[in-house]
Amino acid sequence: MSTTTRIANVRPYGEDPTDLYVCDGVLVDPVADPDETVDADGLIALPGLVDLHTHLREPGGEEAETVATGSAAAALGGYTAVFAMPNTNPAQDSPVVVEHVWRRGREVGLVDVHPVGAVTVGLGGERLAEMGMMAASPAGVRMFSDDGRCVNDPLLMRRALEYARSLDAVVAQHAEDHRLTVGAQAHEGPVAARLGLTGWPASAEESIVARDAMLAAAAGARLHICHVSTAGSVEVLRWARESLLPGTSARVSAEVTPHHLLLTDTAAEDYDPVHKVNPPLRPEADTLALRRALADGVIDCVATDHAPHAVEAKDCEWASARPGMLGLQTALSVVAATMVATGMLDWRGVARVCSEVPAAIAGLGDQGRPIAVGEPATLTLVDPDARWTVRGAELASIADNTPYEGMELPASVVHTMLRGRWTVRDGKVSE
Ligand SMILES: NC(=O)N[C@@H](CC(=O)O)C(=O)O
Question: pTM for this structure?
Answer without folding.
Answer: 0.98
